[in-house]
Specification:
The protein is α/β, with parallel strands linked by helices and 256 residues long. The chain folds into two domains: 2-105 and 210-251, 3-Layer(aba) Sandwich (D-Maltodextrin-Binding Protein, domain 2), CATH 3.40.190.10; 107-206, Periplasmic binding protein-like II (D-Maltodextrin-Binding Protein, domain 2), CATH 3.40.190.10. The chain has helices at 2-18, 47-58, 70-78, 142-152, 163-171, 182-191, 224-241, 243-251, and strands at 27-31, 33-34, 38-39, 63-67, 85-88, 97-99, 105-114, 132-135, 157-160, 177-181, 198-200, 206-215. The strands form three sheets. Strands 5, 6, 7, 8, 9, 10, 11 and 12 form an eight-stranded mixed β-sheet that branches. It has a two-stranded parallel ribbon with strand order 1-4. Helix 4 (142-152) links the parallel strand 8 and strand 9. Residues 31-251 form the Solute-binding protein family 3/N-terminal domain.
Amino acid sequence: MMIKLFLVLLAIAQTTWMNESFADSHINVSYPQWPPYFYGKQDKKGFGRDIIEQCLAQMKQDHSFKYMPIARANKTTQMGLIDLNVYSKKKGREEWLHYGSEPLYEVTYNPVTLKSKSIRLSGLKDFDPYRIGHQIGMKYSLEYQDYLNSRRTQKGVDEVRNHESNMRKLLHGRIDVYVSTRSDIEIMAKQLKVSDQIRVHDLEIRKAKYYLTVPKNAKNVKEPKKLLGALDSCLKKMKATGSYCNLAKGYGVPCP
């Protein structure tokens, strides 16, 4: 009990100290259409955006949210035109990104098929007979990424710009399987009222933690490590006090 109280007080103290550094600069924050973490242009914000907004407000950090599809957000962030974005850790990204140390959330990537087709998937070779959907900009494990590249040479991959297109193509029989985050699949199926028609397989293509990041060439952030340190402190405080889990429950996100 005393250790938990100490961690809460430490997080509060760190956040208070960090508050002094960022009130004079405006930053641009990118967000995609990725329920339940980000809801794109919809009125609902999403778990990730809610957390970021609360932390930036506590830090008195002036900011604007910019909606962008994943592929465009990647390019814009690499150009330094976006100051704060959310990324998992992958080889090569640390060459152009500063990462925070506290995960914003963790997700699993799983295949989805129609129940009516009785498809069994226990490994990548099991995908061979099937037409695969892929959302442009989505990143997976290296093994699955290599597999997708090999299937592209056989014209066995159907590429789209958003998740809903993948789901609708699956429902209409134009593809047999695609991979996305389990939470996103379940929410999309619920929105389209087809939850009883799809099957999310237990096969984990990827499990990843996502962090707040600042590009090394960000135009508006002079001290990225201090900004990320303040955000890390805010996340730790929210997790220690229970506000993180309370918000997570409202979005159906697992509490760590």
